[in-house]
Amino acid sequence: MVFSSLLFLFIFFAITLALYYAVPNRVYRNTVLLVMSLIFYSWGEPKYVLLMVFSILMNYAAGYIVGTYRNKQAKALEAHDGLLAKKSKKLSRLYLALSIVLNLALLVVFKYTGLFANTLKSLIPALGGMNVPEIALPIGISFYTFQAMSYVIDVYRRATPIQKNPVYFGTYVALFPQLIAGPIVRYRDVADQLENRKENLEQFASGVKLFCVGLAKKVLVANQLAAFWAVMKADPASNGVLASWAGIIAFSLQIYFDFSGYSDMAIGLGRMFGFEFLKNFDFPYISRSVSEFWRRWHISLGTWFKEYVYIPLGGNRKGTARTLINLAIVWGLTGLWHGASWNFALWGLYFGVLIILEKLFLGKLLEKLPKFLSSFYLLLIVVLGWALFDFTNMKELGAFMTSLFTGSGSGFSVHDKLVYIVAYLPVLIVAIVGSTPLAKKLHDRFESKAWCGWLDLALVACALVLATSSLVASGYNPFIYFRF
């Protein structure tokens, strides 16, 4: 894994950049990106690259067919041919539905077969002897499936035109910077960039800077917090209350720096090739309500579920009762999207219930509270939620939750855990400060100063050197969101 990370940074990526800027025009550059993206995916998932190719071709064909019938419908309406318009709309809906079913079928088979089979075995004793198939999860399938689906749906909605060039569409689905852990990029947000982007030195430099920031977040902060959390999670009965809270706070910071770090790296890599992806995180831990938190956390996923699930279900347009049902459905699905285990569904419903309560009455109460109280409420709710997210075993979750409030442990064990807390305290402090906009505000204040540019360059260089050294010395910890 160390070799793979360094191989990506200093060989694969360098070769990709060289080839990309060596070829003369957009068609060839997109071809380079598509080929190299498929090689990148084959490197990690050689047997599943054909699944990705199938997804690309299937959704390309579906978008073309759906768009063609939608265009026929529009022309028939202009010609006042109601019969042809009705038939064209019916066929476009049929092929849209087929594409959605096929996409979801692939996702269910490769991601949820084991979960559903094991659940049936536990519910129906007669199935106790049934062999549960072991299907390896294709990396990034949740991300690229959602991206491909959004294209076909947007073509049906006439929110984006048909992409007739299969290389351009394949580049959109397989683009390696954000292929395996997002952000989820809607086709209409990059449609023009696929065909007309213009790379420049300033954008490239900002991409390098953002990539190095993301790499530092992951390697220098998230990986260290992961090591601390592993110790606190292993035997919660020996923690004591303080160590358990320190542990779950560390995990809350770990998952933020892990995922926001990957998003920064993806956006930075995209800029080096002329793409501008939308922001995926906006300092979520400074929120004052769960609703606000989810407007700031994994923004691309929240936007996807809002546009392609919540609004089609009726959103908030059909009365309070229907709105609450729609929210419950969306958050149950959001939880399951994160992993093939029922704790993820419970985690999603946990936040769904809180958002429903905020819509009914709690939101107005939070607005009236002093800022420190509403912020404390949010942090407590989210931190406890991350425990539900991380523990797939309910018995282990119960033991850890007990340790948060009643843990005592033996004297030696508690002392041992306190030593860990002191050892990791600098990283925890850096992570807490880094999860707020403080550093950004300071940077923005002095950005116009000449020395700030040189300081940025020095910090970026240090981040790259330290992160590379850390990868060589201690190994590479995969991103949490690789499993989704």
List the helices and strands and how they pair.
Blueprint: H1 2-22, H2 26-44, H3 49-78, H4 82-123, H5 141-156, H6 166-174, H7 187-196, H8 201-234, H9 241-272, H10 290-296, H11 299-313, H12 320-337, H13 342-368, H14 371-390, H15 394-406, H16 411-434, H17 438-446, H18 450-474
Helix pairs in contact: 1-2, 1-18, 2-6, 3-4, 3-5, 3-6, 4-5, 8-9, 8-16, 8-18, 9-14, 9-15, 9-16, 11-12, 12-13, 13-14
Class inferred from helices and paired strands:
mainly alpha
Assembly type of the chains comes to: single chain
What is the number of E strands?
0
Strand content: under 5%
Largest sheet composition? none
Distance between the termini: 19 Å
- Mean pLDDT, rounded to whole units? 87
Q: Low-confidence runs (pLDDT<50, min 5 residues)?
A: none
| Number of H/I helices | 18
Rough outline: globular
Domain module count: 2
Radius of gyration: 24 Å
* Residue share in helix: over 70%
N-to-C order of helices and strands? HHHHHHHHHHHHHHHHHH
Briefly say what this structure is.
Helices cover 77% and strands 0% of the residues. The protein is mainly alpha-helical and 484 residues long. It has two domains: 23-197, no CATH class; 203-483, no CATH class.
